[in-house]
Specification:
It is globular, with a radius of gyration of 21 Å. It is 42% helix and 24% strand.
Length: 317
């Protein structure tokens, strides 16, 4: 009898924990109902199977909870694997992949034809929600050629672009129809069709972090969430593993020159989003199962949140 009572008590305690979690989520469900959330998806969360499945379930949960999620993805590891398979040389200059026309055809094929379809398929296991699109579609992203800078000198790195214009009408239409847009980080060239007619010469490979920030600003999103491979922005790396929970835009701008090369594009994207009118931008560890839900629907959240300067004081997330 005692064992049975102990078992019943344990079940009750577990059920109460779930109830407390749901109650804690209530104000956040009310606050973000109907709001757009842009999520940059990549890193380990994209390559590890169990995390991929949890990510898809989390995104569908957001949709059922009344939020309007939009996913922007890259695919660096998948691109590199395919370039290696085909024997196409690929190297980086100042952290940017040199993208020849030959490499660009592979980038386009992998991002739009492989990675995008994989993400759409994972989400659509839960229902008819996800619709894949490229940044080329409906002129969503328009970019100009970007150059690397080495020792103060501009270096041509091929078909790498910087987004100069976002036409988010097609994404808004999908959101209004209850869909989940899944966007690959490719952009059309600002100069229009290539004069020589070479296939793929009029498109650019763009950084998925900056693409997500640009789209978040264009959509007037309530949040930009960057999934990465670290806990957040460290206060004094590598001397300390303390994560900064909340930081204002000006303080972040001052920190940028001291950050590691891998964190710079993510934190620059957060800064761009917040300065462009997005109230909150977050950097989360995508290796944590259900990181999205922990950030959005709990009081403390996880990772690092970037906010405008007038809201940089510690407080409720």
């Amino acid at each position: 009898m005692t064992a049975a009572l102990d078992g019943a008590g344990a079940r009750l305690a577990g059920a109460l924990d779930k109830a407390y979690t749901l109650v804690e989520a209530l104000p956040w469900l009310a606050r973000f109902h109907g709001e757009t959330v842009v999520i940059k998806y990549g890193g380990n969360a994209m390559t590890e199977e169990h995390l991929r499945a949890k990510f898809a379930a989390d995104v569908v949960f957001l949709r059922y909870a009344g939020l309007r999620p939009v996913i922007v993805h890259g695919g660096g590891p998948q691109i590199q694997a395919h370039l290696d398979l085909l024997g196409i040389d690929s190297h980086f200059v100042s952290g940017l992949r040199v993208t020849t026309p030959e490499a660009m055809r592979v980038v386009r094929m992998v991002l739009a034809g492989q990675v995008n379809r994989d993400v759409v398929g994972l989400i659509n296991r839960h229902g008819p929600f996800a619709v894949g699109m490229s940044g080329e579609d409906a002129h969503l992203f328009t970019a100009e050629r970007k150059h690397a800078v080495v020792d103060g000198v501009k270096v041509d790195i091929g078909q790498v672009g910087e987004i100069v214009r976002v036409d988010a009408g097609a994404v808004r239409a999908l959101l209004d129809d209850g869909r989940i847009p899944v966007v690959s980080s490719i952009a059309r060239a600002d100069h229009g069709p290539a004069e020589d007619g070479e296939d793929g010469a009029d498109i650019y490979n763009v950084n998925a972090d900056t693409a997500a920030a640009a789209l978040a600003v264009a959509l007037g999103a309530a949040k930009l969430i960057m999934l990465t491979d670290v806990d957040g922005l460290y206060a004094d790396w590598p001397s300390s593993d303390e994560v900064i929970s909340r930081i204002g835009a000006t303080e972040l701008a001052e920190l940028l020159p001291s950050l590691s090369s891998g964190m710079v594009p993510k934190m620059e994207a957060c800064l761009t989003a917040v300065r462009g009118g997005v109230p909150q931008a977050h950097v989360l560890d995508g290796r944590v199962a259900h990181a999205l839900l922990l950030e959005i629907f709990t009081d403390q959240g996880i990772g690092t949140m970037v906010v405008p300067d007038d809201e940089s004081e510690e407080g409720v997330r």
